[in-house]
Amino acid sequence: MTRRRFYLAIAPALPFICGAAAVIMITCDVIAISLNPGYDPLRESISDLVLLPNGWMEEWGMAAAGIANAFLAGLMLSSDAGRRHRGLLVSGGLFAVSTACFGVIIIFNTDPGTAVTTVAGGIHVAAVILLAVLFPVTGLVLARSVRGFHDAVAVGNLARIMAVIGAVVAWQVLPIHQDTFIGLSERFLSGVGLAWMVFAGSHLPGLLEGLDRASRGAADQISASYKR
């Protein structure tokens, strides 16, 4: 009962939570860049900006995205459909891991150029790479779980776009490249990720309810057939 109450409490608020997180993250990034005129948002990593004056604003944006991910995970793990479909449980778990990655990135902030020389830096880079991988994997698992519904195609397409960009980011974030457009790649991935987050926040509650109704209908048919 507590699980169901939690689900009913966050489902109506999820579109606002995800939309607000996207606005906060973009606004914090724009303001932090404007306050550091020597920073190149195309060629320098977001992690570099965190270490500059007012870089805490970037951390606020990441925290907002992490909180939204936590609510997405809570929605999926507390839904009735999530209890019946393994793919939804996996998706919810991946959202939870993404939330943890945001926390790790914020706590272990470091200059990516010297990342491999320190334990904290290695943890930071590993979390960034894992997050770049988790975005598309979560979307693909979710798309497979809700296949047959009209939004499943959109979920899958967004996931494929994130997979391509995520691969670029995961490669460039390794401290073996010089003069790359890591900032552009990271912000492009973040933009697609935010679009995915807003899309999920506005569509997931309806998708989960539809999937749950379909599951209950199939269960009722099986039960009726046994009674005959």
TrEMBL record:
Segments traversing the membrane: 7-35, 60-77, 89-108, 120-143, 155-176, 188-208
Keyword Membrane: yes
Assigned keywords, A-Z: Membrane, Transmembrane, Transmembrane helix
A Pfam family hit: DUF998
Protein name (Swiss-Prot/TrEMBL): Putative membrane protein
Organism: Dehalogenimonas alkenigignens
